[in-house]
Amino acid sequence: MLVKKIQCLLGLLFSILSVCFAQEVKWQKKPITIESRWSKDVVPDAPLSDYPRPQLQRPNWESLNGLWDCSIVDDHESVPSAFLDKILVPYPIESSLSGVKKTLMPYQAIWYRKSFKTPFQLNGRKLLLHFGAVDYQATVYLNGKEIGQHSGGYTSFTFDLTKFLRKDSNEILVKVIDPTDQGSGPHGKQVIRPGEIYYTSSSGIWQTVWLESVPETYITSLRLTPDIDQKELLAEVKLNDNGCKNCVVELEVSNGVKVKGLIGHIIKVPIKEMHTWSPEDPYLYDCYARIYRDGAEVDNVKSYFGMRKISILKGHDGKERIFLNNKYYYNLGILDQGYWPEGIYTAPTDEALAFDINISKLMGFNTIRKHIKIEPARWYYHADKIGMLVWQDFVNPNQSLSTVAKSAFERQIGETINQLYNAPSIVTWVIFNEKWGQYDQQRITEWVKEMDSTRLVNGHSGELLYVDGQLKSPSPNPYISADMTDVHSYPYPRLAPYQSGKVNVLGEFGGLGVSVQGHLWDDLNTGWGYSGILSPNEMIDVYRKMIDTLVLLKEAGLSASIYTQPYDVESELNGIMTYDRKVIKIPLDTICRINSRLVPNLAAPEMRMISNNMSLDLPEAVYRTYTQNCNEYKNGRRDSSFLRALTIHANKEHDDINISKYCDDYFKSLQNPFSEINLLFLQRFVRDANSSAFTFIAENSDSIRKIDVGEETLKVVRGIIKSDFLSMKKDDMTQADWDALIETMRRKYGSEGELAVQEERALYYYLKKDIPRFVDVKSEIHRKYPKSIGVFDLNNDAWAVFENTGNKELLATAIKWSEKVVRMEPTANYYDTYANLLYRLGKKDMAIQAQEAGLKLAVGNGIFEDIVKNLEKMKKGEPTWGTSQ
């Protein structure tokens, strides 16, 4: 009896523990090739927990960053019935730090869910929900009620939760759709299929989410404009309740001055014994705004400002120059794109966010051009505190230039200026870049100047683009209404054309590439730089010569130069640092000394800050020869990072004899062979059916197919299987027993053997023009292995049916395939297939409508003329297919 009681108690204890462990969620970042040293500091309880909006601070706030429930579904679906994944907010879903690392496709939506209890005693106050940024379109619900929407991936937005709050637990739902480069909104350098100068997409919540308690009447914005000539600050305060009667605002500055004024009116605050802001001396004043009604305080916020002025004046040589605080100031800049290997758009920590600004200053630069991205508010706070001039790009319009795209771009400009207006570090707005979506340049340039007359406006950076000395983008009337003439010149610098009243700047140059093994985002590809891939010593020598040229151009009238770039970004290897910020390719003291020929060194004493945290020279491994690595292997070295690099090195040296051996040893050393980075590696180097890596993939195909890159890995395996199948295949397969062949290959290779033979069978029927059997086999493949057929192949299958039969039943099947293609990737080419299928089936009106949709997407595309011809035939009732069927 006692034994039974003990067994019962143990069973009960086990059940309780099982429930506890089932409910416990362990966040784990997804593996990637490289990561920065701050990645280890990310914790799921409180990521990026610093106050998110330094320009408008209140004490009553609470971060909602941390683990949220999430689910990816088709974009037309409603709230998911189950949330099976956890995501670490605010890291984008494609990032390693999110714990998900999946690409959000244009036809999908991600749903977020978070429960919270009201963190404050409201007692008549309001509760606001703030989002730093969500890419791209967000719909927010509280307790089942929609509370608002926001479109635009780079600016902040706020919703009032008060009306739908519950006393106990509350639930936030956020639905996010992000078509990235296949939509109509600004997406910067994010694309679904990254490569070269375009990078991994960054979808969903990617900046801090937080709650804030505010009074019924509260301050919504401060607009602070320094005027150093009059020694005063011009301030404007706005409330949520502009009809607030008897409300007075009091402004107090840290120098002790207090001034009262009216809501929504300019208030002049005298700044006696003024202390100006500059990179050499980034002095900031604290500023407090208090609202009083009938003598009682209603609301108060804390902010800050810097007294600085940026302008264009003639220098002593009579040439227009950039002046800071009425003194000539050469802008020696660097092009910072704001990407991170583990977080993509989101820095792992606040310390990391500040690091890029600090290290740029330590290198000797006094300016950062923030390229095609808007950063979180804390980045500009760090720039203000550290002392760095900022040229802020607007995120370029979608290059479709539809009415929707233009509207989204201009809305974003207004939101960006309002959001960042108070940052003293920002001295220049950059509107367009290298003609990416350029339109109405004069109107927009003049409009930006009207919105903000306190900064310079670069209407078009790189409107004239030179590559290897050749002008790639001529323009009939460049830089109209702008404050600058700006060229891009890769790799070597040059002078922009002179225009009266404008300063002459070099918006981009350089791009010197150096590959550092062990610090590559994609070690399977060679990467690139504008100058090709140099050795470290060559990079130093060329960079020195470039600065020598800039010294001469500066004397000739150049006011600013922007070097590409501070760190590598994905496959771009043209950074001064590696992408993980662990290795600097030009030693810090060397680049400081070189840059000091153009501007005084701003931060030489601070170099010790990072000397213990960063390699100041390239590691010896960079210089190691293939023979030396092979000798290390012979001497018994077998760690996984070495074996991976050795396999890649063997491939570069065309050592086909040893590649498979090294790859097999690498595979045997892996702790997580199912990770994307390892599957991508195996795709490249699994070359025959005799390797243990091949066997592993074939035996685990069902698990591998669930991984984003898994299907590509399985295709490699099927290619090897097909080689085996072709060796046993008869020349005449007319009477072949395909079912027997499938069973033979299944026994030998598992499900991939079956699929490989089915694909060969479908190809055989297609070549024989036996379209009914082709469709039958393809339909079976779709049913049993839906992930095995990509969008490109599915479109080709549908087109094969269109070209070869008029059978309505077969065409109807192909239309279903094509509908899926268009939904997943609405391109001009895929719309053309869909329209032709509809037309051949006799659905003329639907076909014309689909073809016109494809025509809109085909502007500037090589398929444009074909779509126009097919559309004309459809309208005339002429066949768009061959006459032999």
TrEMBL record:
One of its GO terms (molecular function) is hydrolase activity. The keyword DNA damage does not apply. Residues 218-308 form the Glycoside hydrolase family 2 immunoglobulin-like beta-sandwich domain. Residues 107-182 form the Beta-mannosidase-like galactose-binding domain. Residues 352-460 form the Glycoside hydrolase family 2 catalytic domain. Residues 1-22 form the signal peptide. It comes from the Bacteria. Pfam families: Glyco_hydro_2, Glyco_hydro_2_C, Glyco_hydro_2_N2. Keywords: Glycosidase, Hydrolase, Signal. Belongs to the glycosyl hydrolase 2 family. This is Glycoside hydrolase family 2. It comes from Chitinophaga rhizophila.
